[in-house]
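Researcher: Here's my situation. A collaborator sent me these components and asked whether they could plausibly form a single complex. I don't have experimental data yet, so a predicted model of the whole assembly would be a useful starting point for our discussion.
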Amino acid sequence: MSEDVRIIEREKIPTDATLIFAFPDVGLVGVIAASHLIDELRMTEVAYLDSKLLPPVIVLHEGLPHFSVRIFAGQGTLLAVSEVPIPSDVIYPIVDALVSWGKSRKVKMMISLSGIPIEDRQDVTELKSFAAASNADVLKVAREKGIEILTEGYMVGPQAVVLQRAVESGSPALTLLAQCFFNYPDPEAAAELLKSLSKITGLKVNVAKLLEKGEEIRLRARDVMKRTQQEMTKMKKGQEYDIPMYVS
Amino acid sequence: MAVRKRRATSNKIDEYFEDMERWAEQVRETFTEKPSWDLENCAIEPLRDMTVTPREVIVTVDLPYAEKKTVQVKAVDAASLEILAEMKRKIRLHELGVTYREGVIQRFHSWIHIPVRVDMQKMKVQQKKGILEIKLPRKR
């Protein structure tokens, strides 16, 4: 792990867990899903990430400070979630540290939660989820669970780095992406993503409350979405719209 | 607000202008960073987006909690739109997690500058899933 990034454990970390990642990204899909997951599975904070590479931000809750990147645990699952967008120039060291930590805690699988933007999102009533994986075996599992495979395309952001590192180390990793808005918080997409996560992990997650509170979530998330847009521009997130050119 | 050009062909000139737009956006944000709400008018600025294609300008505005029938889109002049929408109920800042001051939000309010010449008379407006979509044909 880099000296610039430390993971501080506050509680005993379960082994053989699934490690889920959720970072602010298109439609804030991963973060909205993660927030619902924490409530539904009654997950508790077990660790946090400390780094001078991140902006000097703490999140206050009930008057007490919390780090912006935290790790929660519950029901055989670890969940690393960031409440602020990761600046594009430090994505590599931050993700490297989280992946290395996960490997040191012998996680059985890493899953990133994110979205894939579609331009006519408001016209789409039935959203789809897609999967990409670090190896063919994990891809096969996703396919067998009925999740469509993102066969071609570009992936930009922290979830891309998670897959890169998983390939390098031979670790099983999966990225789940739900169709979503690019620039607007999308709780419906988050619900769709959680349904796919349930298929893969067997976790029982009721998304009814998430859909019920959809408008409230969209209103509350507007400022985080705005800051995330700025980072997405810097990391050229719009490349995900591009026609892919795979060089074989 | 991000202004995006639909990518038909990507070339260096497009990229140059996109970089300039991003730079201008960053400069504007540096000088004007302020809360998204305006307590004097009990208003909050909605998230919005704009796409400029060769034929039209498409503006979308995210209006969660807005009462659909109160949504108003006004062409203020040849290059500006004003968007107004009342919320379904008054929302206290405390409900949004802002606990250091009192205040209520009861409407969305936004001014949008259109960067190319458009025909405001032929504006088409529709709402779906709480997203307002405005289409403006470009003038030749």
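Model: Some features of this prediction you could bring to your collaborator: Chain A is about 35% helix and 25% strand. Chain A has a mean pLDDT of 92.
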